[in-house]
User: Fold this.
Amino acid sequence: MGRTGGVVAALALLVLGACGGAETPGSAADAAAPAAPTTAIGTVEATNYPLAYVVERLAGPLLEVHFRAAGAPDPAYWRPTADQVVAMQEADLIVVNGAGYEGWLKDVSLPTSRLVDTTAGMRERLIAIESAVTHSHGTEGAHQHTGTAFTTWLDPTLLIEQAHAVAAALERTWPEQADLFADHLAALVADLEKLDADQAAATVGAAERPVVFSHPVYQYLAKRYELEGHSVHWEPDESPGAKQWSELEHLRDHAKPEWMIWEAEPQAEIAARLEEAGIRSVVVDPCATPPADGDLIDVLRRNAAALREVYATAM
Amino acid sequence: MIDVGELEFGYGTGEFRLQLAELRVEGGESLAVAGPSGCGKTTLINLLAGILEPQGGRIGIAGLDMATLDAEDRQDLRALKIGLVFQELELLEYLDVLDNVLLPYRLSPVLEIDDTARERALTLLGRVGLEDKVRRPPGKLSQGERQRVAVCRALVTRPAVVLGDEPTGNLDPTNRDHVIDAILGYGRDAGAPVVVVTHDHELLPRFDRVLRVGE
Amino acid sequence: MNDVLYLAWRYLRFNRGKAAVLVGSIGLILFLPAALQVVVRQGTQALTARADATPLLLGAPGSATDLTLAALYFRPPTLEPTRYAEVEHLAASGLAQAIPLHLRYESSGQRIVGTTTDYFAFRSMEVASGRRFAMLGECVLGASAAEALGVGVGETILSSPAGAFDVAGSFPLEMPVVGVLAPAGTPDDEAVLVDLKTAWVISGLAHGHDDVTAPGAEGQVLERQEDNVVANASLLSYTRITPDNLDSFHFHGDPAGFPVDAIVVVPRDRKSGVVLRGRYAEPGGEVQMVVPRAVIDEVVATLFSIRNAILAVSLGLGLATIATATLVFALSIRLRRRELETMRRIGAPRQRVRAILATEILMVVATAVVLASGLTLLVSRFGVSALRLLGS
Assistant:
């Protein structure tokens, strides 16, 4: 056999060793193998950040989530272009908040079989807004065009129901992944129930501690935790005019609020002037858009901490 | 040669009877058959042509006894050996002059149309002055021209015998002469016996012999 | 044999008028029943294919045939519309997909079909140019509709008023054409497809206008009340929806009560279909559920009865035609007696003369058969389309 035969035998052993290594269970090669699929099995459109977050929590990398209004200042007032609508028509699911959030839904054509209205099952819990100015035509009756508050996700119990609606739609569409969705839903629900308990504890006695809401976007939060407050229309980055200050003073004199709850950090001058008027500022972020820091749960926990500060309840 | 002996014929009903003891017409010879109407001239021609079958006697045409042949054989013999120029034989209106002349070739299974036949037809038409009208339909010819076409049709197969029944009837003198010259000229050139029934006494001198029937 | 064919052909050519009449009449009597068979067969196939592709229909109580013909073939609806709430109810059941159809309006004779984008997937429609509708007011044309209206992507069409006296109800809406579909060989080719909400705009259930609550709108204000602004007649409803006025469009009333002429029901599975049929089987309800295939089978059975009656009549006509043609041939032979005798005397055997006559007859019949076959082929290719055109 000689030298040549020895080399051949060595090569053969090398090959056999490599094959045997790949087939042996529990080998180092197995431990390094990827465990999850790398390509998405479908696409989902979401119309606000909380819903996009819910889908991502439930599906992980399995689904490609599109949130086209991410760059808009406020997704509630985002309007899709025709091209964007055409793109949305191709999605496997289109998850919408409902409750009037997507004012543009009446103006576009989306496949209703793949549209998931996450608040359709809770109509009796939606809050009607009655203060809008209506219009009528001639002698016809009056018509009211803005009717429902839509920041439902600020009430963790409503957000849980919305998550259930999303999970049901995901299971219908991808039944082979039902177990995965159920497991992830349970984890998300646990997080939200803890958050709800924390916020409930933080807001004990809130009914006697009126506050001012910088915008009428906290209806569901207020209802859930019996927060007493009045809404104004103040932007955190715009100095209020004299009429607005006057309105606030009137409120202060009658309701004696000690805090103003802002959607975002107000300008220092505004906060300072409020402080002079005896009203401190705190941020409870509605989080309709992706936060700069953390995710939805992080923002809601920061909101809980802010409420704790307002109502000064020890944890 | 035409060789007839002890010929007897009668139609099934009626009293008419034709009897001919002997008749011989040599090749190249022409015989005119004349007589009053109803005397049997056409009957004699039809017997010689094999159209009618005699009750007795012999009819020798080109070496064959017509009286011994059946109808289909007589038909074939007629197609091959006998040229007929009968007044009542029509041209086919839907064929042009040349096709009418070549008609015997298309109708008889024992004849086949070929270039030689076409050349012969054109030559015959030329001889009777119709070389410029070969593609005309019969409807566009005069009575005399139509009869000349009929003569060419009778002669195109180079028959061994030529039989005519009033071939010049109702023709003007010029056309009459054309027709008779063509028939008699063929008989002389081809050495074929020619027998023609005619009531035109002016034509009788042009024949070698005259047979008077029924007088 | 060539000589026989030649003589027969020359005779027919010379008598082309008579031959043409014979060919025409024999051809016609062969063509009529064949064409009828083809048309009925193709029509039946088209009818049943369309019905087979539509599992269930939901609509107002009344004639199931009228409901089916309206929903499948876009015939003018004769039943009262049902409510959009029925669509939501069906979708919420989780048992089926519910695709609404609104069929009340036309655009220059082409039916406007108000529906959702689900209808495109359901009917496997392909867009040949442009895209599906995406925004309120847009329309997509079937291939034949585009041709009939003479418009393409980028142009506009106008909806027609519902009737001469419908002045204050529906109003003509100018709709931009954003897509043209590829030909499908179905009634969808004739349709103008719009979003259901656009159909409701046409019917006057939704409109857009200037914001009379805004400052500067005084010219359009009749009266300002404490919490309501009454507009005057100068406030016009828009006749075209554009990106600038899109936001102003709104519905008056609850869409759940808005009209829908038919609902295509696509059960999730066989069991769901059975459950649904059971639920809607109660007579006297507010809606009826029909199985389109069953309805069309009854229509087809009627078609077959009519076809059989016509075939029976055709048979009688056919026998009469054959008898007439036979008489014509017999008379013709009698008139040609001298010609045939000439042929015999010249040397044609009896068989050959018969062969020539038989060949003439065969050539006439063969030509008639070829003519009938060619016409039947044309009918099989274009007949059903032509009938559809006549019917519309």
Notes: The interface with chain B takes residues 3, 6-7, 10-11, 13-15, 338-339, 342-349, 352 of chain C (CB under 8 Å). Chain C has a mean pLDDT of 88. The two ends of chain C are 54 Å apart (CA to CA). Chain C is about 50% helix and 15% strand.
